[in-house]
Structure formats: structure tokens, C-alpha cells
From TrEMBL:
Residues 80-107 form a coiled coil. The keyword Repeat does not apply. One of its GO terms (cellular component) is plasma membrane. Residues 23-95 form the Lipopolysaccharide assembly protein A domain. Residues 1-20 form the signal peptide. The keyword Cell membrane applies. The chain crosses the membrane at residues 46-68. It holds the Pfam family LapA_dom. It comes from the Bacteria. It comes from Donghicola mangrovi. Keywords: Cell membrane, Coiled coil, Membrane, Signal, Transmembrane, Transmembrane helix. InterPro entries: LapA_dom (IPR010445). This is LapA family protein.
Length: 116
């Protein structure tokens, strides 16, 4: 299984290197469209290789997706936490009731009954 994972990672690495080699041309990224930049009287622009723009876009999309999914699952995590607290309270109550049940009995018999 480990070799399959390494082969898969190697294939991804080869693909990423091929994309980077094929997209080495420099592109200009502008913060605003040209017409809007003329009205605002300023524009931020930077020149980067195209493969960096592609990789940064993929990484940004993954991070946004992970964050969105984490926010979407908040209600499920909160409900699971509530259920866990209820189960802990019920377990404490069961142990307390077992202790009260065996209050006047022999300790050995109480232990045997608790195990079985």
C-alpha cells in the first residue's frame, strides 16, 4: 500500500512539474480592471509566472473549500458534543445508582454483580 501511495505522489509531482514547465511565461495580474483603475487613480499590478498563478489559485480554492465545509459542519459537531455530555451525565448517574443499590451489601458481591 505504501508503494501505491508513493507512485501516486510521484505521478502528481510529474504532472505539476509538467504544468510548471509548460506555463513559465510571465503574466500581469491587476487588482482592478483598467477602466476602474483609471477612475480610482491607482492600480496594483504584479508580474508572475503563469504556473504560480495556477498553483496559488488551486491552493486558495482548496483552503476556501475546507473552511466552508468546516463552517457547514459546525452544527453537527455541536450536536455531537451535546450528545457526548448527555451520555457522560447518564453514565455518572448509572454508576451512582449502582453504588446506592449495593450500599448495604457485601463489597465482593457488589463487585461480582457489577462485572456481570
Amino acid at each position: 500500500m505504501r508503494y501505491i501511495r508513493y507512485a501516486f505522489l510521484a505521478a502528481i509531482a510529474v504532472c505539476l512539474v509538467a504544468v510548471a514547465a509548460a506555463n513559465r511565461d510571465t503574466v500581469t495580474l491587476n487588482l482592478l480592471p483598467q477602466d476602474l483603475a483609471d477612475v480610482a487613480a491607482w492600480n496594483f499590478s504584479i508580474q508572475l509566472p503563469l504556473f504560480l498563478v495556477i498553483f496559488a489559485s488551486v491552493i486558495a480554492g482548496l483552503l476556501i473549500g475546507f473552511f466552508w465545509e468546516w463552517m457547514r459542519e459546525h452544527k453537527h459537531r455541536a450536536e455531537a458534543t451535546r450528545h457526548k455530555k448527555v451520555a457522560q451525565n447518564l453514565n455518572r448517574e448509572v454508576e451512582k445508582l449502582r453504588g446506592e443499590k449495593h450500599a448495604g451489601k457485601d463489597e465482593v458481591l457488589a463487585l461480582l454483580e457489577a462485572k456481570g
